[in-house]
């Protein structure tokens, strides 16, 4: 996708799109993933030959833990306590991150995880905080990660669109548009209304195109397994939106670490002995209350390893619990890790 940063999920989806379900090629891809994990484990953990950097390349920040939709294939537990991140927690995180050059390894910060980012009541203030640190970093010629946002776009009205575009914070923005036509969209994205979604995306693109620095845009489309990962079978109005943005990604559902039952994945090999998980190696997730979990497949905070309000990010990164998970993955003992044993892994 031109102009857009990609993460580990997207790397996997790229391969799904390109090589389909060929078992043989998948074995090769998984073997190469294992080699890459082993090398990183050796460099950053067992031998610690690289001490000036961490293995983390992306951090997800969850502004709020709740969502206005009830998507069929999402594992977010809507009964869990509703928490929103305070501006102070966000400041605390950036101070910690930017004052430790070992985290210059972080290339992208994703403003999404579980929940819906636009529901944060102080969105403007939160983006202002990020903009402050971005400006400071630029002034001091310091590294600053790319900032990417993903939204369900249901409340992306003109006001929210202007807030995002004028913030100067975002390096790319994507919209989630599942299905392939209006009916499937409304079925898969329960509570979302197709007509409102179309209006919001169209308005956003119009305002964005008129702005001095348009943000690169993209769409993620979750497609049911019975359909092919191309657009030929989709409705014209669906395709029109896909072509309104700069790039799109079509994907099949994964099982969110085993939290969601996907019929098509039921009898799939759980890869109990797989060496490595690229998300565990390269990602951390900051939750609204300051907790940090190990990966974005953990939408319900089962893999929390620390809290940035009581310890620094680097000590969380080196937490024995995380090191033990990495070690188990290195030894092919995925099935011994509660969080991961039923995950498809990435
Ligand atoms: C969990 S949502 C969070 C961001 C925001 N609420 C949204 O929907 O855009 C992140 C992305 O995961 C996708 N998604 C939901 N369930 C999925 C599944 N089972 N497999 C793959 N992607 C999924 C959504 O379509 C969305 O693009
Ligand atoms: S996929 Fe996104 S919009 Fe849908 S329920 Fe999950 S968090 Fe909400
Ligand atoms: S295997 Fe574990 S660490 Fe890796 S994505 Fe799944 S739940 Fe996360």
Characteristic terms for this protein:
346 residues, alpha/beta, disordered N terminus, binds iron/sulfur cluster
Question: What layout of secondary structure does this protein have?
Answer:
Layout: H1 8-19, H2 23-46, E1 58-61, H3 87-98, E2 108-111, H4 123-139, E3 146-151, H5 158-167, E4 172-176, H6 182-188, H7 194-210, E5 217-222, H8 236-242, E6 247-251, H9 278-282, E7 283-286, E8 291-293, E9 304-307, H10 313-317, H11 320-330
Parallel strand pairs: 1-2, 1-7, 2-3, 3-4, 4-5, 5-6
Antiparallel strand pairs: 7-8, 8-9
The structure holds S-adenosylmethionine and iron/sulfur cluster (SF4) (2 copies).
S-adenosylmethionine binds at residues 67, 71, 73-74, 112, 114, 116, 150-152, 176, 178, 220, 222, 251, 253-254, 256, 260.
Structure notes:
This protein is an alpha/beta fold and 346 residues long. It is 37% helix and 12% strand. The protein has helices at 8-19, 23-46, 87-98, 123-139, 158-167, 182-188, 194-210, 236-242, 278-282, 313-317, 320-330; strands spanning 58-61, 108-111, 146-151, 172-176, 217-222, 247-251, 283-286, 291-293, 304-307. The protein has a 9-stranded mixed β-sheet. The longest helix is centred in the N-terminal third of the chain and has 24 residues, at 23-46. It is globular, with a radius of gyration of 20 Å. The model is unreliable at 1-6 (pLDDT under 50). Residues 67, 69-71, 74, 76, 114-116, 152 line the site of one iron/sulfur cluster.
